[in-house]
UniProtKB/TrEMBL annotation, chain A:
Name used for this protein in its record: Monocarboxylate transporter 2
Spans through the membrane: 16-35, 56-77, 89-122, 143-162, 174-193, 264-285, 297-313, 333-352, 358-376, 388-410, 422-444
Taxonomic source organism: Buceros rhinoceros silvestris
Domain Major facilitator superfamily (MFS) profile: 17-446
Compositionally biased region (Polar residues): 473-483
Membrane topology: Multi-pass membrane protein
Length: 504, 325
């Protein structure tokens, strides 16, 4: 019987994919919302252990740092074992972490149990979820990303009152025990992440184009449905480069060659800059409201407004980003969202009174949701689904530093000047700068990609392919030509080209 | 104390009044009270006055409180004043000058049934001066303006309130629990903790039961009671009492002691739910894989059948050809 790998379809873009989106919704929701939801217990724990507030706040910081910093480890594990075992192990780790935290007798033990163990478990949840979406979706990927990322605000809105309820009825120890059980639901999400082989088929073109490094990644990738035909010539290539043994091995698990990838570098620099001003406004919104005289409950309500708008904005952004006008230029849309976010912060000091702050919260929620929904989608768009596994790990560890630095820098500004407006101006300026940088660099990137695509096509000596390409070639194709091999099947659908996908 | 006459002036009570009061800052020798004047509205809105008062008389603070009387009779204005140490206090009731056309007003200052002599501070205000040195002088003082209708205002002189906890504190058997009591703004002279045994309150002596109770004064305003090795018997109501120069104030706290079984039940329920759902997902996956395999097998079977029939057709054709030639 003929091998069907050559004609393997692209990612399903539906079917079981929606179950995967639901699983990712839960995983991502816990990963982002859980550290924030823990704040409700801090006052009681602070009294219990007799520590200062900043010592308690370290628990959250360690958790956040571990979740982002363990990104590369997560990527390596996914490259080696696949998403499903990693997520299930992560869920188990979260559960164990919180259950052991329930029996802690010192603040140091809390740092370890809640901070490191649970944080690491959440890291093992976050990365694979995003990776799985890239494996199951291509045409509808922005929508899938938007829906999955909506898990974060939904979980936050659920966890906040739930945590309060648990605390009132079970105290902080009992709450941690029950929260450990609730975190085990990440294992359910992991069970839904059925391994799939579709990704390798759609990136076989990449194998022939991008060289041995990415190729080796494919060989050790989690979905293994390689056609025997393509295997043989490639294995010869591998044997030729034995001298790079150690680097090869590392690159097998974590693709460091990404640092030579133009799109990846642009994304990395832009995002690292953006995160300096991303989270600080949320952290300081309620204190700022109280500072200008608004009562505690109305200040908390501002955050609820933000979360609700965020919840709606994320899937909506996904749908917009998926439309045929935006998808080819999705990087511009991302830059616009970041700049919009920055502008909101710059205008915030002009908001006077509660109504002004409500309007600010609505726009901030909208902008925040837009950026978050496209955060991973744009990375996938730039590097492609195959190298995304390593890319996301490298990006999160770089973002880890600026995420942790952002709020303290904002706090220092507030303390030095005694006024919140400088913090907002700093955050707004940083984000507008990041957005502009991304916009300009992506324009350059699209330009270069189009040029490379033209060169590549002219080098190929397939007269038929040249002819079919000349037929009905439209601007859309030119711009998105090298955005990643994942768009190849898309183009195929558009024009009926089959040569690249089938491989040589 | 000075005696004073009050005057009645012809006024008509047609408009509504505004109420205002000064708030006292933290007790210190130099009391500066500053408030800004706001425009009076047609309804009962609060106003604040710009005033500064301070006086230092042999370690006793002097404070002034003034209330603008409401015009609508029947409604009484109340003001809570918190005092924690010996204070010389002046309470005044004032009638806004635009209502000075009220006729035949008789002003009385009372505490309960006892009348206090007042002075006429100005044309439209009447005040009393009190020396509050102990608990007996605290209470409710009221000024009553008797005209065609009665207008009154009440001042409640109290010790500072203590904040306990409204919701019960949850703890587990064998665990340690820390209970906090806080006093706002005023530092008590001493704190005492009581536990309710049956219907009486028993003071907690932490030196006597040092391995059970630890009382810590974290700061001037905050006290902690730490109970070690909590048992079911420790469940109940606790009181923290703050002693001030002028009296005592208590806060109430409730302790609830649970056994570990209590959170364990929801925990096990959720774990069971997770296990069941994961098993279901895996079973469904195996089932759908089997279905796929069967469908593939049937397809292959059909293909083989087709090949076979083609072969047999071919054989017949070749044999037919063979025969023909």
């Amino acid at each position: 019987p003929p091998t069907n790998a050559g004609q393997a379809p692209g990612p399903p873009d539906g079917g079981w994919g929606w179950a995967v989106v639901f699983g990712a919704f839960i995983s991502i929701g816990f990963a982002y919302a859980f550290p924030k939801g823990l704040a409700i217990f801090f006052k009681e724990i602070q009294d219990f252990f007799g520590t200062s507030y900043s010592e308690i706040a370290w628990v959250s910081s360690i958790m956040l740092a571990t979740t982002y910093g363990a990104g590369p480890i997560s990527s390596i594990l996914v490259n080696r074992y696949g998403s499903r075992p990693v997520v299930m192990f992560g869920g188990l780790l979260c559960g164990i972490g919180m259950v052991s935290a329930a029996f802690c007798t010192s603040i140091l033990q809390l740092y370890i149990c809640v901070g490191f163990i649970t944080g690491f478990g959440l890291a093992l949840n976050l990365q694979p979820s995003v990776i799985m979406i890239g494996k199951y979706f291509l045409k509808r990927r922005p929508i899938a990303n938007g829906l999955a990322m909506a898990g974060s605000p939904v979980m936050l809105c659920t966890l906040a009152p739930l945590n309060q309820f648990l605390f009132d009825n079970f105290g902080w120890r009992g709450s941690f025990l029950i929260l450990g059980a609730i975190l085990l639901n990440c294992c359910v999400a992991g069970a839904l992440f059925r391994p799939i082989g579709a990704a390798t088929a759609s990136v076989k073109t990449q194998v022939t184009e991008k060289g041995t490094d990415a190729l080796k990644e494919e060989v050790t990738g989690d979905a293994v449905e390689m056609s025997t035909l393509t295997d043989v010539p490639l294995k010869d290539k591998m044997e030729d480069e034995e001298e790079k043994d150690c680097c090869e091995k590392i690159n097998q698990y974590l693709d460091f060659s990404l640092f030579k990838h133009r799109g990846f570098l642009i994304y990395l620099i832009g995002n690292v800059l953006m995160f300096l001003g991303f989270f600080a406004p949320i952290v300081f919104l309620a204190p700022y409201a109280k500072h200008i005289g608004i009562d505690e409950y109305s200040a908390a309500f501002l955050l609820s407004i933000l979360a609700i708008v965020d919840m709606i904005a994320r899937p909506t952004t996904g749908i917009i980003a998926n439309s045929k006008w935006v998808r080819p230029r999705i990087q511009y849309f991302f830059s616009f969202a970041i700049t919009f976010n920055g502008t909101c912060h710059l205008l915030c000091p002009l908001a006077s009174g509660y109504t002004g702050l409500v309007i600010y919260s609505i726009f901030f929620g909208l902008a925040f949701g837009m950026v978050c929904a496209m955060l991973f989608e744009t990375l996938m768009d730039l590097v492609g689904a195959a190298r995304f596994t390593s890319a996301v790990g490298l990006v999160t560890i770089a973002e880890c530093c600026t995420i942790l630095l952002g709020p303290p820098i904002g706090g220092t500004l507030i303390d030095t000047f005694g006024d919140y407006k400088y913090m907002f101006i700093k955050c707004g300026a940083v984000m507008v700068l990041a957005g502009t940088f991304l916009f300009i660099m992506n324009y350059y990137n699209y330009h270069m990609l189009a040029k490379e695509e033209k060169e590549r096509k002219s080098k190929e000596e397939h007269p038929t392919s040249v002819r079919t390409e000349n037929e009905g070639r439209n601007n859309w194709n030119k711009e998105t030509a090298q955005n990643g091999p994942e768009l190849e099947p898309l183009r195929e659908e558009q024009e009926g080209l089959k040569k690249e996908v089938n491989g040589t | 104390m000075q005696a004073g006459l009050h005057e009645s002036s012809p006024e008509s009570m047609t408009s509504t009044w505004t109420v205002s009061w000064q708030t006292q800052g933290s007790p210190s020798d130099h009391l500066t009270l500053e408030h800004t004047v706001a425009v009076s509205g047609p309804d009962l809105t609060t106003q604040e006055f710009k005033q500064a008062t301070k006086e230092n008389m042999s370690n006793v603070t002097f404070v002034e409180y003034e209330v603008l009387l409401p015009g609508v009779s029947g409604t009484s204005v109340e003001k809570n004043i918190t005092l924690d140490s010996a204070t010389r206090i002046e309470l005044s009731c004032r009638l806004d000058s635009k209502y000075s056309h009220l006729k035949s007003l008789r002003v009385t200052w009372k505490r309960g049934n006892e009348t206090i002599r007042h002075i006429n501070k100005t044309e439209n205000s009447w005040s009393i001066q009190l020396m509050i040195l102990d608990n007996s002088k605290l209470g409710s003082y009221s000024c009553v303006l008797q005209g065609e209708e009665e207008i009154s205002a009440v001042f409640h002189l109290q010790v500072p309130k203590i904040e306990g906890k409204e919701k019960p504190i949850i703890s587990y058997e064998g665990d340690t629990v820390v209970m906090t009591c806080k006093s706002f703004d005023y530092a008590p002279i001493a704190w005492t903790w009581y536990v309710t045994n049956g219907s009486e309150q028993i003071a907690i002596n932490d030196s006597l039961l040092a391995d059970k109770y630890v009382i810590n004064r974290i700061s001037a305003n905050v006290t902690h009671l730490k109970i070690l090795k909590v048992t079911k018997e420790d469940d109940g109501v606790y009181w923290c009492e703050a002693a001030f120069e002028l009296g005592k104030s208590i806060g109430k706290l409730k302790l609830k002691v649970l056994s570990l079984m209590v959170p364990l039940k929801p925990f096990l329920a959720i774990v069971a739910e997770v296990v069941i759902i994961v098993t279901m997902v895996f079973l469904y996956e195996m089932y759908s894989k089997k279905k796929e395999k069967r469908a593939e097998y049937e397809k292959e079977f059909d293909q083989v059948e087709q090949l076979k029939s083609e072969e047999s057709n071919g054989l017949e054709n070749s044999s037919a050809r063979h025969r023909k030639t």
